[in-house]
Design goal:
By secondary structure, the protein is of the alpha+beta class. 22% of the residues lie in helices and 28% in strands.
Length: 242
């Protein structure tokens, strides 16, 4: 078996998430199908650095491939992209050592949640950007973001019913950034915000729930200090909506 590390970028709109499932389209399922076709073998093993939920996109998902085919990394990129759907692309590939593991070798993971407060948004971006068409106190939200940094038990910031070994996660940085498009792209999306969270991992729908809670701070419905209470309560009902 030959081992490769690849970087995958995808638009997850029509997929049920990254991880392969018994039914429905997934990113891993599409990649596995292409690898089986290229290698003419069922002996294909893939693992990703993490899961993404249905509809979530990736700019740089790391994967490990084990395939019964010895092919230059650049040729592997071309061959996979020639057969994958247009909304999945291999950005780069390299030969990897046997002990490489996309989960345990990861130094950190980053999740970007993009939203705008514009009253009207372009139909070209509505699959990539959430619209909050109301006034938000961005300064208060930025203050609240900092309270998520450090190691916390995020049990009440995950999807109810999710089974994991533990719910402790360490957040290295959590910041809300104002971005602006110029020129042609300003017609599609002018001013927008990116909630950037970097940590050692995320629970299912954890960042979406963080955003829902932070937005309530921005609307004056809770104070930044309240976020400390929510973290210590371990009560899902105290956190914001997903």
């Amino acid at each position: 078996m030959n081992i490769y590390k690849i970087i995958v970028q995808y638009k997850g709109t029509k997929y049920l998430g990254f991880q392969i499932q018994a039914q429905g389209q997934t990113i891993q399922g599409e990649i596995n199908a292409v690898l089986k076709m290229l290698t003419k073998s069922e002996k294909v093993k893939t693992i990703g650095s993490g899961r993404t939920d249905a509809g979530v996109h990736a700019l740089a998902q790391v994967m490990k491939l084990e395939i019964p085919l010895d092919i230059p990394a650049t040729s592997l990129v071309r061959a996979m992209n020639a057969n994958l759907p247009e909304d999945i692309r291999i950005i780069e590939a390299e030969v990897a050592a046997p002990d490489f593991h996309p989960i345990y070798s990861a130094k950190s993971k980053e999740y970007n949640y993009v939203f705008t407060t514009e009253k009207v948004i372009s139909p070209f971006v509505n699959e990539l950007v959430t619209q909050f068409p109301f006034e938000l106190d961005i300064e208060l939200m930025q203050k609240g973001c900092k309270l998520f940094c450090g190691e916390h038990d995020f049990i009440n910031y995950q999807c109810v019913g999710t089974k994991v070994e533990n719910t402790l996660r360490k957040i290295y940085s959590c910041e809300l950034i104002l971005c602006s498009s110029t020129g042609h792209w300003a017609h599609l999306l002018g001013n927008y915000f990116v909630l950037k969270v970097e940590g050692n991992g995320f629970l299912k729908q954890m960042v979406r729930t963080i955003v829902g809670t932070i937005v309530e701070v921005g609307r004056g419905r809770r104070s930044p200090e309240n976020l400390k209470e929510v973290l210590s309560s371990k009560d899902r009902g105290m956190a914001g909506r997903t």
